[in-house]
Specification:
Keywords: Hydrolase. InterPro entries: HAD-like_sf, HAD-SF_hydro_IA, HAD_sf. It is an enzyme of class 3 (hydrolase). This protein is an alpha/beta fold. The protein is built from 9 helices and 7 strands, in the order ββαααααβαβαβαββα. It is 34% helix and 12% strand. The chain starts with 27 loop residues before the first strand and ends in a 6-residue tail after the last helix.
Length: 244
């Protein structure tokens, strides 16, 4: 495998020979999970389910404000570092955050288990159609996600697993995106070269970092609510499939 050029602040340190002809056709697409193909239900709904009692608007606003404030807590921030390198670290990171709100501390474990429960995740409205068109055009599909558990049950519950033939979970490899090893492992499993593979996600540094492994990358805009149209039709255009 050829070595990728090392870049200084202004560009490649060594001269780079531009490839001849058009870019390679996209033969494989890798998808992130949360924020890309799925989004979990709202925190308000999850909190009500975990507390198993009515929660008024004023109380809910206070609880959500507590979660927001908790993100700045040094203990919570520290727990997020290397969060996705193991199942244990992932659980610790999230339960530490939930428990930073005193009223939620007793149900921190239950809130975490919601993450692992397929029913709490909502696919974006345009995901199935886009995956079907990609697979129908012969594009190999894989998942590369920073996560603390196996995602296949969630995809299967929503009948979105059948299009995928590669699953790369960060916790199984002891590292996180944008570590090139994750992207390159998925490429090998799909039988596609990095230059023939597109990574789709919602995080500029993690998913956009796939370019450091020689892939192409498309980063979705932020702000889509659970169940909305995500704008995944752009992936069809990038893969050269019709007009999306």
């Amino acid at each position: 495998m050829s070595r990728l050029p090392v870049h200084g602040p202004e560009g490649p340190i060594r001269a780079v020979t531009a490839p001849q002809g058009p870019p390679a056709a996209v033969r494989a697409v890798l998808f992130d999970f949360s924020g890309t193909l799925f989004q979990i239900g709202t925190y308000a709904d999850r909190i009500r389910a975990a507390l198993a009692r009515p929660v008024g608007e004023a109380e809910m606003e206070a609880l959500l404000g507590g979660l927001e404030a908790g993100l700045s807590d040094p203990a919570v921030a520290g727990a997020q570092r290397a969060r996705d390198v193991s199942a244990r670290a992932h659980r610790h990171a999230f339960t530490t955050w939930y428990a930073s709100v005193p009223e939620l501390a007793p149900v921190a474990g239950e809130l975490y288990e919601q993450l692992r429960t397929p029913e709490h995740w909502v696919p974006y409205a345009d995901g199935a159609a886009v995956l079907s068109r990609l697979a129908g055009a012969g594009v190999a599909l894989g998942v590369v996600s920073d996560v603390g558990w196996d995602l296949r049950a969630t995809f299967a519950h929503h009948r979105l697993d059948g299009w995928f033939s590669s699953w790369t979970h960060s916790f199984e490899y002891g590292t996180e995106k944008p570590d090139p090893r994750l992207f390159l492992h998925a490429c090998r499993e799909l039988g596609a070269g990095p230059a023939e593979t597109l990574m789709v996600g919602d995080h500029p540094a993690k998913d956009g970092g796939a370019v450091g492994a020689g892939l192409r990358s498309y980063v979705l805009p932020a702000g889509a609510a659970p169940g909305q149209v995500r704008g995944l039709d752009a992936v069809l255009r990038l893969a050269g499939i019709g007009d999306g």
